[in-house]
Amino acid sequence: MSAGAEAPGAAEAAEKRGLVIVYTGHGKGKTTAALGMVFRALGRGMRVAVVQFIKGKWKTGERLFAETLPGLTFLVMGRGFTWESDDLSRDKAAARAAFDEAAALIAGGEHDIVVLDEITYAIHYGFIAEGELLSALRGRPAHVHVVITGRNAPDALVELADLVTEMKSVKHPFAQGMKAQIGVDF
Ligand code: ATP
Ligand code: MG
């Protein structure tokens, strides 16, 4: 590819404002889409933070890879906690801590993209108030993109967002009894 094919330039990109991007729906690909954007942005030298609102004991390929990338801030909810019991108050405290970190990352403006992976579940379970997320988004520095993933995105979030994609499941191997596979699902 010639250098001329590379577009847009940095000056053009600087005019763009930060977006709220939501990947929701029941089909596979929400987290994958967010991580694809992270990959792209890191290639552009952008500063990126990912906060995963999933239990930290679950190892994922993205988490293992993130540890090798110094330019990427990658936080997993409840990392360092023990998760032996299904203690709801502990889940709530972990979600709260993750949200507080995420809100600080968004407000700080040092990261061009902040991904809140699976945060819709924390809202669904009442761990985080929907209004708190909306306030964090509304108050963000103008250049910051926030990417949100998870099923059942609340209506008010869809309303506020600039870009919403709903993943629709047409086929999934789970229906044929196939379990999640390493490198494909986690
Ligand atoms: P991924 O992380 O693979 O992009 P996702 O973020 O869209 O998936 P989640 O709701 O976070 O989906 O669920 C993660 C897990 O659920 C993955 O193992 C994924 O393969 C599985 N999954 C996603 N969609 C479906 C579906 N329609 N039927 C069954 N399992 C699914
Ligand atoms: Mg996901």
Automatic annotation (TrEMBL):
It comes from the Bacteria. Pathway: Cofactor biosynthesis; adenosylcobalamin biosynthesis; adenosylcobalamin from cob(II)yrinate a,c-diamide: step 2/7. GO terms for biological process: cobalamin biosynthetic process. It comes from Sorangium cellulosum. CDD domains: CobA_ACA. GO terms for molecular function: ATP binding; corrinoid adenosyltransferase activity. This is corrinoid adenosyltransferase. Its EC number is 2.5.1.17. NCBIfam families: cobA, PRK05986.1. The keyword Cell division does not apply. It holds the Pfam family CobA_CobO_BtuR.
